[in-house]
């Protein structure tokens, strides 16, 4: 059913072990700090006031946990392998909390509870005490710890642990984790697109292998990347735009895409479609020469917008200078060598691909353009979709979608039109303490979805004509 | 249903042919899956439709009955399928489905295990995500349901991507020959905690498990069981609110001297003097949206967890 080749291809794309030059998401202290980084020989991460080389993370499985240590050559990260005992201890703790009888009526918070001073801790450190040992010492020297409820004891331990024994979790940058992280830290850069909303877009647009998905991604490339991830190196995700310069799709670089996926991420100015949709198929058939000059200027402009100059810090380092090595020089160069040879995402679509889309249409459409009126885009690009193709539009505001939906109805361009607003709530699940999280995101935006219909006296006739000539 | 076969790909050129599965669309809440058969007819409140008239027409077209009533013929997608499939059990809908597929990190080539199969609503979307080279192994202990699901996957053209097994997953766990092969496992079972141990054995390290349960007590119990071998255990609830859109004429508010330029303070003053909202017919139309009257208030809780990486 699946050939050996396919399987190999797959294991290259779904790698579960890090490699030199791969992009990773570092989760420090259970979500307190999230940052993207690239694993190179010289890259580092700063935790507290110390720099830790990321070298030890290379070759480890995603999902590995690391703790900080004072190694022979300075501070370093070392992998922690969870043991069976640790989980038993957790079980015991949970049982205890079920029979809680202590409360905090006698608790006085006056900062005198801790007898260990800052100097004491420094001293321990100098002597090479581990972070965990310091945490234990703090607990032993806390006058109030014994009287705390087990819930507050746990909180205390966690707080101290985060400070003195921070943990780093190595995660795989996937559409899910990338979207989550941006939404948490820099929501504006992805147009406030929440992960449940992104997942709805991919479903409503029926994104699957071998489909040709037309996107208008003006939200940094998170959409393009998420679609490309689902295509797995087949089909195309084609980003279209008005004017000369495509919007940045920098976030795509955070996904660990190989050549075969990057090649499937292309762009095409809207004008290039419209030019020949007037039944004038000239520029499809013409050899490159005539338009060569124009193209190259567009390309070089685009290059500055889409591709990062290699010496710039990676878009993935959203915090601090995780990329820089000790001598202060960006370390991207090491992997830049590789990147250079590799296929760049977001090249202009090939003539063959364009020709095929003109003949067959795209299999679906996704629009995420916070700054452009939804209806004005849809009416322009809908003709490029195959009949019966689903489409979906994201917007942070309801009104532009309502207007768009109304117009689509009036013009009889689509059916099954629906505006939905996703709602997502997370729960704390603990023995006898289960409840929804106190905070939730109140706006994941709105989604207009529908299916394009074949309408005898509507657009697309140019395409039909074109098809006949071919 | 999926474009893995290039000749079946949606396109301006692809027309409906004998033997295709089409979705007959009357209204957004009234659709039906029909296998096109030259000699067949479809009868509904709009009249009698001859399949023979459909053959050769493009997907997305409008077709008429002998009485002049019409319906649209659409190409099936997992979303449409979820709306038309025959309910042999409770099923998952698009909000939960899309979130599950995203959180399970499914991409082409993945191997995913599911139990129970139920009506195959989720299975269809799992298959879409892992196509063309991955595989879904789905298990239900109810023989008839498994048979019906197999027939459905045959109809929707997914049978090469999905294997349906008859098995008591809570009692026996997943088959041993799948040990360590799964990128993801999904459970929609009455007592999911009984299957979690086996799910852990099937998963690759860092693989993701999801359990869907309508009741919080089930979540509680599953989460406790997950704690020993899994990390990053998180529970979510996801819902959708749909909106109605309508164009309406809104009357303008006219006070006697109320020109658009007049200062608000003046208006206020006038209003307090008791001027009235005067209706005139020059009102412009506006498009308005409001949430639809009824919506699902709860489907189930989704609990996700990752298998711990032990060396
Ligand atoms: C609610 S349905 C699943 C619906 C499915 N998620 C869908 O979207 O169509 C639950 C299914 O689990 C099956 N089931 C219950 N206990 C089971 C067990 N121990 N082993 C396997 N399947 C079981 C039932 O027969 C039923 O079909």
TrEMBL record, chain A:
<keyword id="KW-0539">Nucleus</keyword>
<protein>
    <recommendedName>
        <fullName>tRNA (adenine(58)-N(1))-methyltransferase non-catalytic subunit TRM6</fullName>
    </recommendedName>
</protein>
<comment type="subunit">
    <text>Heterotetramer.</text>
</comment>
<feature type="compositionally biased region" description="Basic and acidic residues">
    <location>
        <begin position="89"/>
        <end position="106"/>
    </location>
</feature>
<feature type="compositionally biased region" description="Polar residues">
    <location>
        <begin position="298"/>
        <end position="325"/>
    </location>
</feature>
<dbReference type="GO" id="GO:0005634">
    <property type="term" value="C:nucleus"/>
</dbReference>
<comment type="similarity">
    <text>Belongs to the TRM6/GCD10 family.</text>
</comment>
<dbReference type="GO" id="GO:0030488">
    <property type="term" value="P:tRNA methylation"/>
</dbReference>
<dbReference type="GO" id="GO:0031515">
    <property type="term" value="C:tRNA (m1A) methyltransferase complex"/>
</dbReference>
<feature type="region of interest" description="Disordered">
    <location>
        <begin position="88"/>
        <end position="109"/>
    </location>
</feature>
<dbReference type="InterPro" id="IPR017423">
    <property type="entry name" value="TRM6"/>
</dbReference>
<comment type="function">
    <text>Substrate-binding subunit of tRNA (adenine-N1-)-methyltransferase, which catalyzes the formation of N1-methyladenine at position 58 (m1A58) in initiator methionyl-tRNA.</text>
</comment>
<keyword id="KW-0819">tRNA processing</keyword>
<feature type="region of interest" description="Disordered">
    <location>
        <begin position="298"/>
        <end position="331"/>
    </location>
</feature>
<dbReference type="Pfam" id="PF04189">
    <property type="entry name" value="Gcd10p"/>
</dbReference>
Automatic annotation (TrEMBL), chain B:
<protein>
    <recommendedName>
        <fullName>tRNA (adenine(58)-N(1))-methyltransferase</fullName>
        <ecNumber>2.1.1.220</ecNumber>
    </recommendedName>
</protein>
<dbReference type="GO" id="GO:0031515">
    <property type="term" value="C:tRNA (m1A) methyltransferase complex"/>
</dbReference>
<feature type="region of interest" description="Disordered">
    <location>
        <begin position="250"/>
        <end position="295"/>
    </location>
</feature>
<keyword id="KW-0949">S-adenosyl-L-methionine</keyword>
<feature type="domain" description="tRNA (adenine(58)-N(1))-methyltransferase catalytic subunit TRM61 C-terminal">
    <location>
        <begin position="69"/>
        <end position="306"/>
    </location>
</feature>
<keyword id="KW-0808">Transferase</keyword>
<keyword id="KW-0819">tRNA processing</keyword>
<dbReference type="InterPro" id="IPR049470">
    <property type="entry name" value="TRM61_C"/>
</dbReference>
<comment type="similarity">
    <text>Belongs to the class I-like SAM-binding methyltransferase superfamily. TRM61 family.</text>
</comment>
<feature type="binding site">
    <location>
        <begin position="119"/>
        <end position="122"/>
    </location>
    <ligand>
        <name>S-adenosyl-L-methionine</name>
    </ligand>
</feature>
<dbReference type="InterPro" id="IPR014816">
    <property type="entry name" value="tRNA_MeTrfase_Gcd14"/>
</dbReference>
<dbReference type="GO" id="GO:0005634">
    <property type="term" value="C:nucleus"/>
</dbReference>
<feature type="compositionally biased region" description="Polar residues">
    <location>
        <begin position="273"/>
        <end position="285"/>
    </location>
</feature>
<feature type="binding site">
    <location>
        <position position="168"/>
    </location>
    <ligand>
        <name>S-adenosyl-L-methionine</name>
    </ligand>
</feature>
<keyword id="KW-0489">Methyltransferase</keyword>
<dbReference type="GO" id="GO:0030488">
    <property type="term" value="P:tRNA methylation"/>
</dbReference>
<dbReference type="GO" id="GO:0160107">
    <property type="term" value="F:tRNA (adenine(58)-N1)-methyltransferase activity"/>
</dbReference>
<keyword id="KW-0539">Nucleus</keyword>
<dbReference type="Pfam" id="PF08704">
    <property type="entry name" value="GCD14"/>
</dbReference>
<dbReference type="InterPro" id="IPR029063">
    <property type="entry name" value="SAM-dependent_MTases_sf"/>
</dbReference>
<feature type="binding site">
    <location>
        <position position="140"/>
    </location>
    <ligand>
        <name>S-adenosyl-L-methionine</name>
    </ligand>
</feature>
<feature type="binding site">
    <location>
        <position position="188"/>
    </location>
    <ligand>
        <name>S-adenosyl-L-methionine</name>
    </ligand>
</feature>
């Amino acid at each position: 059913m699946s050939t050996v080749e396919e399987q190999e291809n797959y294991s290259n794309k779904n790698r579960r072990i890090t490699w030199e030059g791969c992009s990773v998401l570092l989760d420090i202290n259970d979500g307190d700090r999230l940052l993207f980084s690239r694993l190179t020989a010289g890259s580092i991460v700063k935790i507290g006031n110390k720099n830790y080389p990321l070298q030890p993370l290379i070759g480890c499985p995603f999902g590995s946990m690391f703790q900080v240590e004072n190694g022979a050559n300075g501070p370093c990260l070392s992998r922690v392998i969870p043991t069976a005992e640790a989980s038993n201890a957790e079980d015991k703790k949970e049982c205890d909390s079920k029979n809680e009888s202590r409360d905090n009526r006698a608790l006085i918070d006056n900062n005198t509870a801790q007898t260990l001073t800052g100097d004491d801790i420094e001293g321990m450190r100098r002597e090479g005490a581990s972070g965990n040992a310091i945490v234990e010492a703090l607990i032993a020297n806390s006058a109030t710890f014994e009287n705390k409820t087990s819930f507050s004891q746990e909180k205390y331990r966690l707080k101290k642990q985060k400070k003195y024994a921070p943990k780093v979790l190595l995660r795989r940058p996937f559409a899910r984790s990338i979207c989550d992280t941006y939404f948490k830290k820099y929501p504006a850069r992805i147009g406030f697109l929440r992960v449940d909303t992104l997942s709805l877009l991919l479903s409503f647009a029926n994104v699957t292998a071998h489909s040709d998905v037309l996107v208008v991604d003006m939200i940094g490339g998170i959409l393009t990347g998420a679609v490309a991830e689902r295509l797995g190196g087949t089909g195309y995700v084609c980003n279209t735009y008005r004017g000369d310069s495509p919007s940045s799709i920098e976030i795509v670089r955070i996904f660990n895409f190989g050549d075969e996926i990057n090649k499937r991420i292309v762009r095409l100015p809207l004008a290039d479609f419209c030019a020949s949709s007037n039944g004038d198929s000239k520029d499809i058939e013409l050899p490159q020469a005539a338009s060569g000059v124009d193209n190259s200027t567009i390309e070089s402009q685009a290059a500055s917008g889409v591709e990062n100059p290699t010496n710039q810090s990676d878009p993935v380092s959203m915090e601090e200078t995780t990329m820089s090595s000790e001598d202060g020089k960006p370390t991207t160069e090491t992997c830049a060598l590789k990147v250079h040879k590799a296929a760049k995402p977001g090249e202009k679509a090939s003539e063959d691909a364009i020709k095929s889309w003109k003949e067959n249409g795209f299999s679906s459409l996704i629009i995420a353009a916070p700054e452009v009126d939804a209806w004005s885009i849809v009416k322009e690009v809908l003709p490029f979709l195959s009949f019966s193709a689903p489409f979906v539009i994201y917007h942070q505001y309801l009104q532009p979608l309502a207007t768009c939906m109304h117009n689509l109805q009036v013009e009889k361009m689509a059916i099954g039109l629906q505006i939905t607003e996703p709602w997502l709530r997370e729960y704390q699940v603990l023995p006898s303490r289960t409840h929804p999280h106190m905070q939730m995101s109140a706006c994941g935006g709105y989604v207009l979805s529908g299916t394009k219909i074949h309408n005898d006296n509507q657009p697309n006739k140019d395409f039909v004509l074109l098809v006949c000539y071919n | 249903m999926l474009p893995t076969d290039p000749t079946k790909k949606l396109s301006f050129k692809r027309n409906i042919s004998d033997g295709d599965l089409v979705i007959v669309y009357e209204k957004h809440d009234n659709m039906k899956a029909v296998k096109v058969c030259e000699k067949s007819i479809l009868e509904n409140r709009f009249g009698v439709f001859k399949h023979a008239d459909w053959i050769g027409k493009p997907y997305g077209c409008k077709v008429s009955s002998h009485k002049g009533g019409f319906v649209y013929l659409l190409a099936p997608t997992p979303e449409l399928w979820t709306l038309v499939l025959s309910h042999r059990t409770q099923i998952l809908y698009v909000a939960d489905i899309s979130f599950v597929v995203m959180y399970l990190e499914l991409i082409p080539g993945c191997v995913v295990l599911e139990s129970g199969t139920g009506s195959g609503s989720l299975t269809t979307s799992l298959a879409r995500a892992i196509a063309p080279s991955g595989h879904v192994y789905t298990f239900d202990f109810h023989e008839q349901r498994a048979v019906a699901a197999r027939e459905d996957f045959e109809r929707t053209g997914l049978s090469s991507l999905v294997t349906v097994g008859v098995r008591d997953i809570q009692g026996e766990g997943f088959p041993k020959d799948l040990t360590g092969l799964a990128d993801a496992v999904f459970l929609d079972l009455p007592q999911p905690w009984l299957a979690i141990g086996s799910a852990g054995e099937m998963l690759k390290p860092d693989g993701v498990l999801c359990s869907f349960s309508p009741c919080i007590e089930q979540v509680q119990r599953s989460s406790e069981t997950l704690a020993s071998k899994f990390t990053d255990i998180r529970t979510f609830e996801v819902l959708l609110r749909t909106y109605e859109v309508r164009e309406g004429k809104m009357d303008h508010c006219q006070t006697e001297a109320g020109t658009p330029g007049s200062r608000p303070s003046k208006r206020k003053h006038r209003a307090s003097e008791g001027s009235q909202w005067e209706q005139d017919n020059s009102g412009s139309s506006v498009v308005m949206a409001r949430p639809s009257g009824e919506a699902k208030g709860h489907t189930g809780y989704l609990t996700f967890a990752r298998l711990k990486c032990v060396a």
